[in-house]
Write a structure and sequence with these properties.
Blueprint: E1 2-6, E2 15-19, E3 29-37, H1 41-48, E4 67-75, E5 87-91, E6 102-106, E7 111-112, H2 119-126
C-alpha cells in the first residue's frame, strides 16, 4: 500500500508519498480501504511542528490523518462480521495513519456512511462538522 508520510516537521512539501506496510486489524478492530481523508487544522499544525491543544507532536516518521471514510475490507478477531464490506466514516481521535490507502481503527468508533452521502462530505461532517453539534458529539 501507499501512504503519505512526514519525516520532518515543516511545510507541506515535507510530506512524501511512499510505500508502507498494510496495517492488520487487531482484536475488536477493522481495516478501512480509505477513499477520503480529512485534512484538519490540527493536522496542518502538527505537520508544521506546532503543538496544538491536547495533542502532542507525533514521533517521526508518521502518517498523519485522523478522519477517514471508506469501506471495511478486513476484520480483527472478535469484530462483528456485519461491518465487512460496509461504507463507513470514522474520527480516529488522536491516532495518526489516515493519509494512507488503508487505516485501522477500533470498530466501536465506526459510523455507517449514509446512502447518498459521498466520502468527502462524510469526512467533513465527522471532523469539523461535529463541532456544530456541541458537547453531545465531543467524544465522536
Amino acid at each position: 500500500m501507499h501512504a503519505v508520510r512526514l519525516h520532518a516537521f515543516g511545510p507541506a512539501e515535507n510530506l512524501t508519498y511512499e510505500q508502507a506496510e498494510t496495517p492488520v486489524p487487531g482484536p475488536g478492530q477493522v481495516r478501512i480501504a480509505v477513499t477520503a481523508a480529512g485534512v484538519h487544522l490540527l493536522d496542518t499544525s502538527l505537520r508544521a511542528g506546532v503543538q496544538g491543544g491536547p495533542q502532542a507532536l507525533p514521533e517521526l516518521p508518521t502518517v498523519p490523518g485522523r478522519e477517514v471514510a471508506g469501506t471495511v475490507d478486513a476484520l480483527g478477531p472478535g469484530t462483528d462480521p456485519a461491518w465487512l464490506g460496509r461504507r463507513v466514516v470514522v474520527h480516529r481521535r488522536m491516532v495518526p495513519g489516515g493519509y494512507a490507502e488503508h487505516a485501522v481503527t477500533d470498530a466501536d468508533r465506526l459510523h455507517p456512511e449514509p446512502d447518498g452521502l459521498d466520502e468527502a462530505a462524510a469526512v467533513a461532517m465527522i471532523g469539523t462538522g461535529r463541532t456544530t453539534m456541541g458537547p453531545s458529539l465531543a467524544g465522536v
